[in-house]
Write a structure and sequence with these properties.
397 residues; alpha/beta; Arc Repressor Mutant, subunit A; Nucleotidyltransferase, domain 5; five-stranded mixed β-sheet; 14 helices; 41% helix; 19% strand; binds zinc ion
Amino acid sequence: MASAPGSLESLRSRNRLHVLETVQQRGAVSRADITRATGLSRTTVSSLAADLLSDGVLIELADRVAPPVTSPGGGRPATLLTLNPDGGGVLGVHLGHDNVRVVYADLSGGVLGERQREIDVDHLPVDSLAYVSDAALELVAAEGHDVDRVIGMGVAVSAPVQLASHTLRSPSMLRDWSDVDIAARLRHEVGLPVYVGNDANLGAMAEWTFGVGRGADDLIYVMLSDGVGAGLILNGRPYEGATGTAGELGHVVVVEGGYVCRCGNRGCLETVVGTHALVGAFSQSRGPDTTLADVVALSVADDPGSLRVIVDAGRTVGRALAGICAMLDPKLVIIGGKLAAAGSPLLDGVREVLVRGLPPAISQGVVVTAGRLGHRAEVLGAIALATRSTSAHLLTR
Ligand SMILES: [Zn+2]
């Protein structure tokens, strides 16, 4: 029975949800982190955590301790709390420009199964969504699970997402998808709640929840792939902006009068460091069959031409980021997407420009690092989105 609004019972329920959402948002956290994030007292957090542990919603990670960024005071390492992986399953999908990836995971983000297919999603929304629903149901069945056990599906798309309608805004890498209600179609096919988000924003959520950004409350995730975008975590929360399109770093102008971008402007960052632009620049001297993998492999082998392309790309990204870092003072800049495989030369290019272009107080504080989740970042972000969107549901199972 629902408790009366304003009663002690309903206050405790709200606080329980608040604690659960904090664990979901951050993946694995200490009780002290929860106290800081929620503003609840230590005693209240301890008591609510004990409830959630005894109900089997949370577990303690016996062999894991809080990373240094969350426990600067030293002393005995704090035990981390996380969602009970056995509490249910969750599906994640990444609809990329030329690839569709579907992952089935437990509630702590542990991948149970994965399917992916090269596909030209630009032109085939119906086929791509049919593939997604078939693959999702197969993955759940392959684990011997019933669909009732799955709490929801998250979908990362290479486009800004209209938050209210779950449809895509322009400029999108997915040209024929603007009127397709992805959430409604998939909900109809798989019979689960479906949540849709922008892939760069979800990459940020994934690195923050499961990856290198754990414990960092202010970070910028930069996705360098065919499309270029960024996701922001500010003050311990994903930041989506007034209209849900924050982080469109790919459309920051870096070359006055440069090439025309798919958004209609000239000289956007994406027209310079998007993988098509980079491969195009490189293929002028290496032939038309050059691929991104060739450019990256040659740079790892110290080929001067490919190193030049990658270091310059890093510097250009750094220029686009400098003003944003000056404004936001992030703790971490995480480089992800296909180009992140280029590693140090790319990161060094970004760092060099940030050190030169920012006041020392900010540039000394910001760490530029590669993402930890690689090609799974966006799909794991979709998993995190679905999990955190279903908090109340978890408490009533
Ligand atoms: Zn643009």
